[in-house]
Amino acid sequence: MRRGRLVGRSLGGAVLLVAAALSGCSAVDPTVVAVLAADAESQLQQPLDADGLRERLEQRCDGCQVEVFDAAGDQQTQDDQLDQAVGASADIVVLDPVEPEAAEELVARSEVPVLAYGTLVPGADWFVGVATAPSPTTGVDTDLEAAREVISGDRDSFTHLPATEMSDQAADVAVGELAGQPVGESTDHEGVPSWLFEPVEVTVNDLTSVVVATGAMSLDDLCSGQTLERCTRFGLV
Length: 237
Hints:
By secondary structure, this protein is an alpha/beta fold. It has eight helices and ten strands. Helix 1 (about 50-60) runs parallel beside helix 5.
């Protein structure tokens, strides 16, 4: 049985590799899902939720081999990676585009179905993401830093994208299509069957219900060091 492999930049501790060591995996012509990440280590955007994607695929896709490509923010690299994925007999591509405008050309020349993730790519077969991407949070690098600043009182709120739920939905759509059992209840968004999510404005009152309950962050991450005392005051710990 072939194993999924990481193509492109090493992801270090953030394991963005969906293993295909599933029960019943065939050594002959496995079903291949290619995931093209724009920049898996970027702290200025929320990347694919790799763990959620892996878990959903393991639950639903017997015999799938998933290969993840990281373009490291470079459009030409993503162009080459799509060619590599198709050349490696990918059956479906999940595309987190580096540049949506350039990705339209990628989709047009792709020989396999493409699920656009995060940002709509015209011509994609499906789309999972937000209708209008929110403006990046200013003054911080990550959602975690923004959340800690909310706890410390340095800011009132921050905008959170439900990356875990989006990745779950993307996996469901991909596996359903591969199995010939399309996922229903999509929305037509600019001519593309879509599953749309809303950015959430998170305040200190929403931290546990929005980001902790969904697994986006842990209380250990939020409430340590300088924020521990205020977490206790707010009843978070």
